[in-house]
Amino acid sequence: MRISLFGHMLAEGADGRSVLPRSRKTRAILAILALAAPRPVLRSQLTGLLWSSRGKEQAFASLRQAVHELQGALGAHATKVLRVDRNHLTLRDTCLWVDVRGSTSTPPDPDSSRSFRAPLLEDLYGLDPAFDHWLLEERERIEQQLRSLEQVTLATSDEVHTRIASAERLLRIDPMHEEAWRALIAGHLESGDDDAARSAYGHYVAAYTRAGLIPSIELHAGASADSHRVANRSKLGLLAKGVKLAVLPTRNLSGAHHENTMPGLVDEVMAAVSRFRWISCIGSADHERQDIDFVLDSAFQRAGTQIRLIVRLLDPQDGGAVVWASSFDREVGEELSLQEELAAEIAAQIDPEMLLRYGERTLATKLPEPTAFDLTMRAIPAIYRLEPIGFHAAGKSLAAATSLDPGNAAAHAWWAYWHLFLVGQAWAKDSKAATLRAGELAERAVTLDPGDARAITLVGHVRGFLHKRVEEALSLHGKALSLNPSLPLAWCFSGLANSYLGRHTEAIEQIGRAQCLSPHDPHAFFFDMALMMPYYLRHDFAIAATFGRRAVELNPGFSSTYKGYLATLGQLGQDQEAARIRARLLALEPAFSVSNALQRSPLVLSEDRALYADGLRRAGLREN
Question: Class of 416-618 per CATH?
Answer without folding.
Answer: mainly alpha
